[in-house]
C-alpha cells in the first residue's frame, strides 16, 4: 500500500497493542484496517458511537483507498479529520490524529499509550535499512488465497498425471510379464500397503493445505475482532460452571471422547468404535484485550494429549469410567460378561492456552456499539475451516510440518517399496 499524501510505500510495523500498523516513513500518516482502531483508542466504544451518530459530516473526497482503490470519505471527529473507506472500512489517519483520538476518548480500564513519533522514526529507519526494496512486502494472510488455489491446482494436476503414468506402467507390465506364483496373503498385504502409501500422499497434501491456511491468517486481538474468518489465541475460561470429563472426572471447559470395543479373536482381533462425541457447552477465550465466546460444535479438534482408560486383565473398569459410560448410555457389560472396552478422552483445562481458527459471527439483535464480548462469537461455517487446539500456533505448525513431510515423503516411498516387492516376488518378465 502507498501513502495517500506522498505515494511512498507504507512500512508495516509490529506494535505492543497487537495489530501491525502500515506507517508512512515520511511521517504523513498511518493506515488502520477494519477494527484495528479498537486496540489503539482506550474508550473505542465512545469513538464508534461518535462516528456512527454523525459526529461530523462525511464528505466524499478525490483520495482513493490504498487497499480498495475507491474514493474515500472525510469526516471530522473530535476536532480532527479522518478518512475512511466504505468498502473495507479501513481508516487513514494523518500525522497526530491517532494520538489526538486516544487522548480525547479516554476512560477505559485498559490504559493505552501511543507514541506516533516513534512509529514514524521506526518506519523511516526500516526504509533506510532496505534501500533497494522497491515495493512493500505482502501482508501475511491477506493475499494468499490466490497462492492457495495455485498450489491446490498444481498438486491436483501432478497427482492426476502421476496416476495416469502409474496406470500405463501397470498395463505395460501386465503385457510383458506373467505371475510366477499364485496370489497369497502377502500379496494382499503389499497391495494394501501401496494403497496406504497413496493415502499418505493425499493426507500429507491436505495437512500442507491446513498448515498454509494457519500460516496465512494473522492472529487478531479479541478486542478488535471483525466479522469473518479469524484466528485468536488466549486462555480458556468456562461460560458458567466447569464441566467434568466423562471418564476421568477432571474439571474442564471442553472435552471430547471415544469409546472402542475389542471384537473378534486371534489374528482377527480389532478395536471397533461404538461411541464418540464432544461437549456442546460454549466457553470463552481470553487474551490481554478481552474475551470472546467459542461455540465448539463442528470444530476440527487438534488435542494431542489424551487420557486412555481400558478394561483391566480382570475385566474391570475404574468406577469413574463405568459411571461415565452409564451417563452416556453405553453398557459396559453384555450377556457374556464384561466387555473389553477402551475409553479415550481429550480435554481443555481451565486457564489452559488454546488456539482457535474459525468464523466470527454476530449474535442476533446485537448492535455494533456493543463490545465484542457480548456481540460476537466464534463458530463453524460452511465456507471456512474451524480448528480448536490446546497447542500454541508455533507448536501446532511444527506438528503439522512433520505430518506433512511424513505423508509427502513416506507415502511415495511406501508405494515404491510395495510395488518393487510385488514385481520381484510375483512377476516374471516374458522373453521376447
Can you walk me through this structure?
The protein is an alpha+beta fold and 432 residues long. The chain has three domains: 11-129, no CATH class; 145-203 and 407-429, no CATH class; 217-391, no CATH class. It contains eight helices and 24 strands. A seven-stranded antiparallel beta sheet has the order 1-2-3-7-6-5-4. A hairpin with a 2-residue loop joins strand 5 (71-77) and strand 6 (80-84). Helix 5 (185-216) runs antiparallel to helix 8 (393-426). It is flat. The protein starts with 10 loop residues before the first strand and ends with a strand.
Strand content: 25-35%
Anisotropy-based shape: flat
User: What does the average pLDDT come to?
Assistant: 80
Biggest sheet descriptor: 7 strands, antiparallel
Order of strands, widest sheet: 1-2-3-7-6-5-4
Our count of domains comes out at 3
Rg estimate, integer Å: 29 Å
Structural class: alpha+beta
> How many strand elements?
24
| End-to-end separation | 68 Å
Low-confidence stretches: 131-145, 365-371
Query: Helix proportion of residues, in percent?
Result: 25-40%
Number of helices in the DSSP assignment? 8
Amino acid at each position: 500500500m502507498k501513502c495517500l499524501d506522498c505515494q511512498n510505500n507504507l512500512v508495516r510495523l509490529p506494535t505492543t497493542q497487537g495489530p501491525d500498523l502500515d506507517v508512512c516513513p515520511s511521517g504523513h500518516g498511518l493506515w488502520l484496517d477494519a477494527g484495528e482502531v479498537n486496540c489503539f483508542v482506550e474508550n473505542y466504544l465512545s469513538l464508534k458511537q461518535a462516528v456512527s451518530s454523525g459526529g461530523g459530516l462525511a464528505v466524499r473526497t478525490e483520495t482513493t483507498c490504498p487497499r480498495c482503490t475507491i474514493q474515500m470519505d472525510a469526516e471530522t471527529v473530535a476536532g480532527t479529520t479522518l478518512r475512511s473507506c466504505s468498502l473495507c472500512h479501513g481508516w487513514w489517519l494523518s500525522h497526530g490524529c491517532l494520538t489526538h483520538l486516544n487522548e480525547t476518548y479516554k476512560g477505559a480500564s485498559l490504559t493505552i499509550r501511543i507514541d506516533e513519533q516513534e512509529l514514524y522514526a521506526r518506519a523511516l529507519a526500516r526504509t533506510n535499512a532496505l534501500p533497494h526494496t522497491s515495493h512493500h512486502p505482502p501482508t501475511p494472510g491477506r493475499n494468499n488465497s490466490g497462492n492457495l488455489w495455485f498450489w491446490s491446482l498444481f498438486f491436483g494436476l501432478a497427482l492426476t498425471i502421476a496416476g495416469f503414468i502409474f496406470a500405463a506402467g501397470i498395463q505395460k507390465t501386465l503385457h510383458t510379464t506373467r505371475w510366477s506364483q499364485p496370489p497369497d496373503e502377502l500379496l494382499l498385504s503389499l497391495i494394501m500397503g501401496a494403497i496406504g502409501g497413496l493415502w499418505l500422499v493425499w493426507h500429507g497434501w491436505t495437512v500442507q493445505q491446513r498448515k498454509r491456511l494457519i500460516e496465512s491468517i494473522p492472529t487478531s486481538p479479541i478486542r478488535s475482532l471483525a466479522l469473518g474468518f479469524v484466528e485468536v489465541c488466549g486462555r480458556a475460561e468456562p461460560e458458567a460452571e466447569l464441566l467434568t470429563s466423562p471418564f476421568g472426572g477432571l474439571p474442564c471447559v471442553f472435552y471430547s471422547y471415544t469409546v472402542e470395543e475389542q471384537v473378534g479373536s486371534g489374528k482377527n482381533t480389532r478395536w471397533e468404535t461404538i461411541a464418540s462425541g464432544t461437549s456442546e457447552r460454549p466457553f470463552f477465550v481470553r487474551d490481554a484485550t478481552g474475551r470472546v465466546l467459542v461455540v465448539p460444535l463442528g470444530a476440527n479438534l487438534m488435542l494431542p494429549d489424551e487420557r486412555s482408560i481400558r478394561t483391566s486383565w480382570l475385566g474391570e473398569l475404574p468406577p469413574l469410567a463405568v459411571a461415565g459410560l452409564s451417563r452416556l448410555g453405553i453398557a459396559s457389560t453384555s450377556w457374556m460378561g464384561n466387555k473389553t472396552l477402551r475409553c479415550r478422552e481429550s480435554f481443555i483445562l481451565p486457564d489452559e492456552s488454546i488456539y482457535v481458527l474459525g468464523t466470527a459471527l454476530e449474535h442476533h439483535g446485537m448492535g455494533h456499539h456493543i463490545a465484542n464480548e457480548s456481540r460476537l462469537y466464534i463458530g463453524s461455517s460452511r465456507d471456512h475451516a474451524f480448528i480448536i487446539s490446546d497447542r500454541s500456533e508455533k507448536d501446532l505448525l511444527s506438528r503439522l510440518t512433520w505430518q506433512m513431510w511424513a505423508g509427502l515423503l513416506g507415502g511415495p516411498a511406501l508405494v515404491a517399496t510395495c510395488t518393487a516387492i510385488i514385481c520381484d516376488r510375483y512377476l516374471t518378465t516374458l522373453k521376447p
